Amino acid sequence: MTVLRIDKLRTTLRLGGRDCDALREVSFSVAEGETLAIVGESGCGKSMLAMSIMGLLPAVARISEGRVILGSRAIEAEPESRMEKIRGAEIGMIFQEPMTALNPVFTVGSQIAEPLRDHLGLSKSEARKTAIELMERVRIPAAASRFESYPHEFSGGMRQRVVIALAIACRPKLLIADEPTTALDVTVQRQILDLLDTLQEQGEMGMLLITHNLAIVAGHADRVVVMYGGDVVETATVRDLFRAPGHPYARALLASLPRVDRDLSELASIPGRVPPLAMLPDGCRFIDRCPHAMDICNRMPPTVELGEGQGHTVRCWLHVEGGEHAADG
Amino acid sequence: MLGYFAQRALTLIPTLFAVLTLAFVLVRIVPGDPALIILGDQASPEAIARFHQETGLDQPIWRQYLAFLSELAQGDLGVSMISNRPVLTSIMEVLPYTLELSFAGVFVGVALGVPLGVIAARSNGGWTDWAVRIFTLGGLSFPAFVSAVMMLLVFSVWLGWFPVISSGKPITDPAGRLMSLALPAINLGLVMMAYVARVTRGGMMNIMRADYIRTARAKGVPRRRIVWKHALRNVLLAVVTFTGLYFSVLIGNSVLTEIVFNRPGLGKLVIGALERRDYTLLQGLVVAYAILVVLVNALTDLCYGVVDPRVKTS
Amino acid sequence: MTHSTEVKRADRKAYKPGRIAIIIGATIIAVVLLAAILAPWIAPHDPYVQSMLARFRPPSAEYWLGTDRFGRDTFSRILYGLRITLWTAAASTALAMVGGTAIGILSGYCGGRVDRWLSAANDLLMSFPQMVAGIIIVALLGPGVTNLIIAIAITAFPAFYRMARSAALALRDRDYIDACRVLGYSDTRIVARHILPETMDDMIIIATLWLATAVRTESSLAFIGLGAPPPAATLGGLVREGFDNLLDYPGLAIWPSLAILVVMIGLNLMGDGLRDANDPRASA
């Protein structure tokens, strides 16, 4: 069953009196128990995507087109009062920066207990009991005695466990993890990712794992969405992506990974960086950095299915039959 | 937490010591001999010598200083040069009035200023924000004596809601005492409110952008509770710090308020001591103010410890 | 720059604190300043001449805002009071700015023991209630406009000292200052050519904000009876005279109060506007 379906989502920002699309025609879905990774450099729209799903866009941004369907319900236009009941209850979220993600003046326990009381209507003592159970589930040692501790008494890794505990407190259908380990030490990173894997195996929760780290994708995701400049450029299973990347950007990303079995002659690294929002081109947004750029790339490329029903899609003119000549006609 | 306060208390000692020394020096650098001012130009040399002896002014300066400190350590602030009353008695008589006025003023200022600042921050650029901005600008622009005169005129003289003179009502008449406190306290509070509202607004704007506010929103905390609980608790840290710093302004304003409303208090005592050139009383008052400021600093630290859990454990 | 910082910046820009504030404030101050400078020519009456026949007159065509208990014209006295108030405020702020900046830069630039002692002295000054300090200093120095200016300057000193010190402290370790030292420039030259200009913007904003405080302190001291000595007309003194006749002639207290308010609002508007315009976050 599908937990989350994003359909042709467009998120528009108003910058300096002009509208620019931070996300264009973004479509994908997450199934029950599945981990879908969203990969891309910073500035590719990953976080904007998470905020669009959560309904937490800044004042200058809005969803101008498309749908966000959670379970069987479209939520992209829900009013704030309804979103408050969905956030934390049906969607949980983990952030990049555990050091600042918790309110310094409240106890860790009360911060975990809050959504339990809000969404599940638990009494104070029930919420406390459940919060301690959650703290044990995310393997915080001596959970009961640390209920009354404050965030500053926890290390970064422990704080991230607290954030995870409060994100999964109400057994959400979907967990969004936005760069959950980027700010942590390598050893702690591993523990947190393993914890997320275990938590997910225990239930039917779908997970959206946002990361720029392909090694994490390889080890912890089922399928991958590659994003560039607000577009989904490739969707594939992890296996397919690593074996046969279709989009020049995906190929370049993979080529930047040090691997013995890969021919590094093509593109060892990708020169340049994602252009600023206001200067994003109308056509393919990778055009300035793409080694295969053609005239037709000034037009938005279509989504092309590769293989036979494997769900491997690429948004690139290279894969369109006769694409090179389409511009002439 | 105890260690933290002990440490803070230790840092206050040099300040207190320095201010005491300053008080001593201040009243001794006055041009002219106090004896001549008090006894008059025509005083006989014997009378002047007797006055010097009685007040200890014939001693060398370092001995006067040591005497000052040792008497102070015994809680003795000396005797008034004019009335011969112990300075401490005069001060303790009016201190409750100044204290109740100051704390009531802080209460009014914080109780009105914080909500006003929060509302302004929530509207951010909307019409309520501008209304609060203009309102607080008015508050910043009123010298305390101008607002006091205006309030006295409107509420006491024209409307007759409050007594015109709020002089010392005994504590046995609580209703009368409260009525006489109301207008002066509101006067102090309204001026302070303007500052508190601005501090709160600025703090709120910053904190609403903090990561932990995003976390709270992501777990579905209702907007109202995010503002009034999650964000406000953090803004209060800034408000506590500000209140501690503002106290010295407040004390200044209380002097003006006491004059306008004809209330007994330290401020009126200072003015009286200056008019009569009562230097021992003046010295005692400077000491009283110094101790008051130091105590308020300690109180601020205490409040900070209550509001910010990081202080307790680190 | 990542896109999230772009978004944040756009989000903040949505709220622009008006340049209007500076314009309104500057206009008010310009008018008040002009009125004060031109007082001898535009005042309808001599502010000091008493007339027992014209005591406590209500406002009229001849006496625009009425007369006081000596029959002196209130409007003319307010105009002359503005002169003293503005001059005292400007002079004391300038004095505090020059003194505070000089000693602050000295403290920050020298560092070490000099800095420690100067900072401690400044903390001491700051720990004492400003108004009470002002009252005592004026009382000890004796009456007179010059003493008043000195007293107010002393109470305003810490604000400038702190700003200059932290600016000098921050600049001292910059590479280009090091470069200057390597080139053999004298300390005086480094301070005058490189550190002083860098602190000027902040100093001007603080000065505008402190002008308002100086006006408040001056008028408060005058209200207590520690302002420019009589027969000089001061705004605070006028309020005090009016206050003594408050029950019968409230106008005598109201008009000079309004004059003080206009000056304060003008200065605060200007200071607020300047601060907002210079604050990159432009939110407070």
From TrEMBL, chain A:
Belongs to the ABC transporter superfamily. It comes from Roseovarius spongiae. GO terms for biological process: peptide transport; transmembrane transport. It is found in: Cell inner membrane. One of its GO terms (molecular function) is ATP binding. This is ABC transporter ATP-binding protein. NCBIfam families: oligo_HPY. The keyword Nucleotide-binding applies. It is a peripheral membrane protein. It comes from the Bacteria. Residues 4-254 form the ABC transporter domain. InterPro entries: AAA+_ATPase, ABC_Ni/Peptide_Import, ABC_transporter-like_ATP-bd, ABC_transporter-like_CS, Oligopep_ABC_C, P-loop_NTPase. GO terms for cellular component: plasma membrane. Keywords: ATP-binding, Cell membrane, Membrane, Nucleotide-binding, Transport.
UniProtKB/TrEMBL annotation, chain B:
Gene3D superfamilies: MetI-like (1.10.3720.10). The chain crosses the membrane at residues 12-30, 101-122, 134-161, 181-199, 235-261, 281-307. It is a multi-pass membrane protein. Keywords: Cell membrane, Membrane, Transmembrane, Transmembrane helix, Transport. The keyword Aminoacyl-tRNA synthetase does not apply. One of its GO terms (molecular function) is dipeptide transmembrane transporter activity. InterPro entries: BPD_transp_1_N (IPR045621), MetI-like (IPR000515), MetI-like_sf (IPR035906). One of its GO terms (cellular component) is plasma membrane. It holds the Pfam family BPD_transp_1. It is found in: Cell membrane. Its main location: membrane. SUPFAM superfamilies: MetI-like. Belongs to the binding-protein-dependent transport system permease family. This is ABC transporter permease. It comes from Roseovarius spongiae.
Automatic annotation (TrEMBL), chain C:
It comes from the Bacteria. It is found in: Cell membrane. GO terms for cellular component: plasma membrane. One of its GO terms (biological process) is transmembrane transport. It is a multi-pass membrane protein. Pfam families: BPD_transp_1, OppC_N. PROSITE patterns: ABC_TM1 (PS50928). Its main location: membrane. The chain crosses the membrane at residues 20-43, 84-112, 249-271. Residues 82-271 form the ABC transmembrane type-1 domain. Keywords: Cell membrane, Membrane, Transmembrane, Transmembrane helix, Transport. InterPro entries: BP-dependent_transpt_permease (IPR050366), MetI-like (IPR000515), MetI-like_sf (IPR035906), OppC_N (IPR025966). Belongs to the binding-protein-dependent transport system permease family. This is ABC transporter permease.
